[in-house]
Input
Amino acid sequence: MTKVLNIEDRLEEKKRKKEVYDHRHKLGTLQRVVQCASCHFRCAMCSYHLEASDSPYPPNSSSADFHLCESCRSEFEDFLKMKDPNEGSHIPWHNKEWKKMWSVWIDYQQAIREFRNSEGYKRATELLPIDE
Output
């Protein structure tokens, strides 16, 4: 009887290893999303590669919270100006859909920051390092 293997233990161990692998894979994906969204070398809006010599934003700019290329920064500044109901724009694409796009983008950036700073995310990255 001592030579008989308990298959249930092996199945449980295999199931546990698969769950650990799946969690690491999902966590790796989340870490890449958070890292890419926070990258200082890419425009946060269009992902254009920012050169080290490029200033991602001018000092005292309202876009200082985001790393934006020159074009996206200009559009973002226009968006901020247009939040004032008295401000209009003569640019044809500055319409309600354009405003919604920027509003949703800001919400997305805030959600990424809140998730990155959440206790659950911090614990998960400490408990399941993806390098193993």
Observations:
- The two ends are 37 Å apart (CA to CA).
- The chain has a mean pLDDT of 84.
- The helical segments are 7-37, 70-82, 96-116, 119-127.
